[in-house]
Amino acid sequence: MIDMSVLHDKPVLSGDRVRLVPLTVEHADALHASALDPEVRRLTGRHRVPDRDETEQWCRSRATDPDRLDLAILGRPGDRFVGDLSLMDFDPENESAAYRIALSAIEFTGQGLGQEATRLVLRYAFERVGLHRVWLQVHAFNMRAIAAYRACGFDVEGRLRDVLLWEGRRHDALLMSVLEGGFRRRPERTGGRPARGTLPDDH
């Protein structure tokens, strides 16, 4: 069984091209702007757009939520907000949790930023939290994301039929997961170079 107490102290995870920091109110404007982007909404299947106050309240509450981990993705250098990610729906007895990631604009896709962020948080999930399995759902039309998840060690487990109704069309989603052993066996690479990353110091 994992120790959920490790989620009380939100980590900072650093890689070559991104830095993951606790999501706070300072990220509210950028996060809300990304929720208004039509293509980001389509890829995430987000029908309802929260208002600015809701977004701020959500960001303000992330640091004290003991049941999930929400991090902002900052591009390096410059620490520009490029998206956010979460580990959530923890199942301590079975050492499992769900994962989600969303880049804040299409201009940030295809650069390996999401892959590096995913590898950093998977290392944290397996090595510090003690998880055995991390899973996610991705819409079947999002081929770029599916390829990125595969590169990070995720495998397709199944298909959820017609889970999204978007502009009159129904779309399937794929259920994917990565196990601790599968992640460790896969070399970490970003842009043809080994991906370096640092885990936070123990508290």
TrEMBL record:
UniProt keywords, alphabetically: Transferase
Ranges for domain N-acetyltransferase: 18-181
Keyword set includes DNA-binding: no
GO-annotated molecular function: protein N-terminal-serine acetyltransferase activity; protein-N-terminal-alanine acetyltransferase activity
Keyword presence, Signal: no
InterPro entries recorded: Acyl_CoA_acyltransferase, GNAT_dom, Ribosomal_N-acetyltransferase
Recorded superkingdom: Bacteria
GO cellular component: cytoplasm
Residues annotated as transmembrane: none
Source organism: Actinorugispora endophytica
Listed SUPFAM superfamilies: Acyl-CoA N-acyltransferases (Nat)
Pfam families membership: Acetyltransf_3
Designated name of the protein: RimJ/RimL family protein N-acetyltransferase
